[in-house]
Write a structure and sequence with these properties.
Layout (H helix, E strand, L loop, with lengths): L1 H36 L8 E11 L4 E11 L6 H6 L3 E6 L2 H5 L11 E4 L1 E6 L8 E3 L3 E9 L3 E10 L2 E10 L7 E10 L10 H13 L22 H11 L30
Antiparallel strand pairs: 1-2, 1-10, 2-3, 3-5, 4-7, 5-6, 7-8, 8-9, 9-10
């Protein structure tokens, strides 16, 4: 009789085991789905600023206007830029006044300047956009194959430092010059904090020169590689050597998340 009871209990035990395995499988599937649904770390994303560049020859102002889109898988499509509610309007007086050449015109020598202005941001998902201004934004340009310019940038926003890579295309008959910059925010533990805008551009150029010709169309692909041979300790040491007392622009005071950030001129690399 005991043996019979054991035989009768086995199917029930098997059913329980099956339900348990099914539950565990369902739980693992749900966990995987939740993990996939988690938003990407905001510092791992690239923020593509894309728009037209036009110079007002009478005022000497260079205007860069367009929209920006956050992406984890490369350059957004033209439709995504057109539909984006995130707009920006940046202005510079650095280029025409010093070089007597509009930024959108072909130029054989390297150029650098500062952009100022605002971009809109919905940072809490409410659908309400607020205006944000960078504290510093240094942008440099260097001619590259294909009749365009390789572009690098370093800057400081209210929520941290950033490094950018991109390209400027010259205007054609019916299309104005287009400037696309992929921005990535970096922390003080990122080796790229020691790079100036020129250092970031030249490191990207060195890698692109060794690759295929069409790689020049996507310079942001080098974003994570331009600091690959640098260590965090070396980055912090070199930054400290270039500045005895870190100071922030007046606009940064009172922002807890901006305290302790080094201004861009403190980073090593060719002079801006």
């Amino acid at each position: 009789m005991p043996r019979k009871r054991l035989q009768e209990e086995k199917p029930e035990e098997s059913r329980r085991t099956g339900r348990k395995a099914k539950h565990e499988g369902s739980a693992s599937t749900q966990a995987a789905a939740e993990e996939e649904a988690k938003p990407a770390d905001w510092r791992s994303l690239l923020y593509f600023f894309h728009g037209t560049v036009q110079t007002n020859m009478s005022s000497g102002e260079t205007h860069w206007q367009g929209t920006w889109v956050a992406s984890s898988d490369g350059l957004p499509s033209p439709a995504e830029f057109d539909e984006s509610p995130n707009k920006f309007d940046l202005v510079s007086t650095s280029f025409l006044a010093r070089d007597e050449v509009a930024l959108e015109d072909a130029c054989p020598f390297g150029r650098s300047g500062d952009f100022k202005g605002r971009f809109s941001l919905d940072d809490d998902g409410s659908g309400i956009h607020r205006e944000v201004s960078d504290i510093e934004h240094r942008v440099v340009f260097k001619a590259c194959p294909g009749g365009c310019s390789l572009v690098g940038a370093r800057g400081l926003a209210p929520f941290g430092q950033f490094v950018s890579l991109g390209r400027l295309t010259c205007p054609s008959r019916n299309v104005p010059a287009q400037l696309t910059l992929a921005r990535q925010y970096i922390g003080m533990d990122d080796p790229r904090v020691q790079l100036s805008a020129w250092a970031a551009l030249l490191r990207a150029e060195a890698r692109l020169t060794k690759g295929r010709r069409d790689a020049w169309e996507t310079p942001w692909s080098q974003m994570s590689l331009i600091g690959a041979d640098l260590t965090v300790r070396e980055a912090q040491r070199k930054c400290c050597q270039t500045l005895v007392r870190p100071r922030l622009p007046r606009a940064a005071h009172g922002l807890p998340h901006a305290r302790g950030r080094l201004p861009m001129h403190a980073c090593i690399g060719p002079p801006p």
